[in-house]
């Protein structure tokens, strides 16, 4: 498996299933500005609430292969193993498919992820040990606390600004490297002083 980060903006995602697992996958994708469609005979109240709130499409019937023909990403999350298996076999091998109860039948795995602003850290055991994945995610959650949110946003803003400065590339690299000093993560005042300094270089 090759880890990738994919922009799902405006991409069509079809989820077979209307229960707890389908909802969990949808919540993971919520905020990605994707076009999500659920196909299932029944939907939980919580899933219905999310779909109405976000404008996701609901198709109330058993899913079929035709439902996924235009999907950028297909997620098979019914509560029936045989249904997921049959759908997985019917889909084109070139499609992105996540089979939630048998990862080997698809080609996409949802990693456990820690997000702090632009910073994303993802981890998976490729199904070997979900408990290990959860344990490591918990450790990363603690290691990368909320201080990394403002810091990573600061780094992004500084990088964009430094790239536009009319100074030699070597000086740009020195400025970027210096920003990795931990004092900028720990102190908003330090970030503000550094930002003011960068603006003075223009």
From TrEMBL:
Top enzyme class of this protein? oxidoreductase
Q: Which GO terms describe its biological process?
A: siroheme biosynthetic process
Provide the reaction this enzyme catalyses: precorrin-2 + NAD(+) = sirohydrochlorin + NADH + 2 H(+)
Keywords in alphabetical order: NAD, Oxidoreductase, Porphyrin biosynthesis
EC number of the protein: 1.3.1.76
Gene3D superfamilies the record matches: NAD(P)-binding Rossmann-like Domain, SirC, precorrin-2 dehydrogenase, C-terminal helical domain-like
Q: Where is the Siroheme synthase central domain?
A: 116-142
Which is one GO molecular function term here? Answer: ferrochelatase activity
Question: InterPro entries, per this entry?
Answer: Met8-like, NAD(P)-bd_dom_sf, SirC_C, Sirohaem_synthase_central, Sirohaem_synthase_N
What domain of life does the UniProt record list for this protein's source?
Answer: Bacteria
- Keyword NAD found: yes
Q: In which pathway does it act?
A: Porphyrin-containing compound metabolism; siroheme biosynthesis; sirohydrochlorin from precorrin-2: step 1/1
Record's protein name: precorrin-2 dehydrogenase
Q: Which organism is it from?
A: Cytobacillus firmus
Query: Lineage of the native species?
Result: Bacteria, Bacillati, Bacillota, Bacilli, Bacillales
